[in-house]
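One thing: can you check what follows?
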Amino acid sequence: QVQLVESGGGLVQAGGSLRLSCAASGRTFSRYAMGWFRQAPGKEREFVGTISGSGNLKSYSDSVKGRFTISRDNAKNTVNLQMNSLEPEDTAVYYCGATSVFPRVRPTEYDYWGQGTQVTVSS
């Protein structure tokens, strides 16, 4: 069983930046590809980005590519999402998830999820 806890969300003005973190339990963290998803009220959970277990491979949704950067530190069992040039459309609850194979873009392909952290971007 993998425990995931997101942090770093908050309120930011359009054009600003936030850095989200996801802390994972266990000693096999590097064996999991990790993903970031977001979900706005009344909408389905949406893929944001994913990173391979080693951290060497990354993939992003078109809506965030060039603005968001995913990274991980396997020594610390953490995965991060650096969000720049934020837009009101980025407002959502952001979730991190763990999956056995890279890349995965569907929520149903992820085995574990954190509780989410709220990101609100004002205009």
The chain has a mean pLDDT of 97.
